[in-house]
Amino acid sequence: MSGSDRLWKLEGFPEHVGPPSGEVQRAYEHWKERCELNPQAAGKQLSGGERYTALIPGAIHTSGDFVELQLVCDYEIHPGPWGAPGNVVYVDCGFVPAEDQPE
């Protein structure tokens, strides 16, 4: 995918959310690519309009075990003039154990 295919500009998103070779990091990077193309489809809209949240599944390797986690990432969408693509602004992210997530 070339840079010209990316319509939305991501602002303030961290480069690393887990070990660089970990499953969570790879899932996060894939999600960011989707978010640059269509941020509305990359997450779920929260009440209030411009704020969204996304659950990004993955796992980390700790002490010989894989721990299933979900990265929760909150962001805001600010369209450009006349509804054109604009900016996707990072709000917050953190890990939640996958077993604590509702089905």
Shape: elongated
Total strands: the figure is 5
Q: Enumerate the strands of the largest sheet in spatial order, edge to edge or round the barrel.
A: 1-5-4-3-2
> What's the mean pLDDT score?
83
What distance separates the N and C termini?
Answer: 33 Å
Specify the biggest β-sheet: 5 strands, mixed
Identify low-pLDDT runs: none
* Fraction of helical residues: 10-25%
Number of helices: 1
Radius of gyration: 15 Å
Structural class: mainly beta
Question: What report would you give on this structure?
Answer:
It is a single chain. This protein has one helix spanning 23-37, and strands at residues 9-11, 44-45, 51-62, 65-78, 87-97. The longest helix has 15 residues, at 23-37. The mean pLDDT is 83. With 103 residues, it is mostly beta strands. The radius of gyration is 15 Å and the shape is elongated. The protein has one helix and five strands.
